[in-house]
Amino acid sequence: MTTRIIYVPGLGDGYHRLRSIALFWWRIWGVSVTPVKIDWYDGRDMNQKMSLIKTAIDAVPTGSRIVLVGESAGATLALHTSVEDKRVSRVITLCGVTRPDTPISSRLRRKVPALDQATNTLPEHFDVSVHSVRAAIDNVVRPRYSSVLGARRHTIWFVGHLATIVLCLTVLAPYMVHIAKAVKK
To answer: Strands 65-71, 88-94: parallel, antiparallel or unpaired by DSSP?
Structure first.
């Protein structure tokens, strides 16, 4: 069975091209990755953003194993999508916002209404396998808020939010693909 990854980015909309280039090379390890362009700051709500992810899922050939990778704020949308779309077999949160009590400034909540909505309504339990990949030290999404109950936790012994994401997209890409393709929980 082939594994197809749908990559849901975080608030760094300006990094979409660089992120897409890094993800293109994941094919070396035997996966196809579709990065979804979320455009977090366009004012659309959570459901409109989730429809972008569902469109990417609809394009996946039948019989493929679908894994969502949610980066930072994108983890909220990936988790919500996994609850609504039973075609998703695994979610990997990468330095992800995974809990409703994650501290997010009121200014950012107003500026990005989809993030506010998605964070406030995050469920606690998921029917799919969830793997939380996080930095050892992350001052943007602290470790306490980057893993859902029952998730398999993977700590990257590195410092920094963006630096850890970049590391996982590039040098640690084989590890990320391994998590995505692993059959066991």
So the answer is: parallel
Tally of CB atoms within 10 A around 142: 14
Q: Is 157 helix (H, G, I), strand (E, B) or coil?
A: strand
Assess contact for 131 and 152: CB atoms under 8 A.
yes
* Residues with Cβ within 8 Å of residue 75, at least 6 apart in sequence: 8, 10, 91, 93, 94, 96, 97, 98, 146
Task: Give the single-character DSSP code of 34.
Answer: E
Quote the domain boundaries for residue 22.
3-181
CATH of the domain at 125: 3.40.50.1820
Are 82 and 128 within 8 A, CB to CB? Answer: yes
| Cβ-based neighbour number of residue 99 at 10 Å | 19
Question: With a cut of 50, which residues of the chain have pLDDT below it?
Answer: 185
pLDDT of residue 74: 98
The predicted-structure confidence for 98-124, as pLDDT tens digits, reads as follows 999 999 999 999 999 999 999 999 998
- If one counts the domains in the chain, the total is 1
Mean residue pLDDT across the chain: 95
The token pair at 53 is: 């992810």
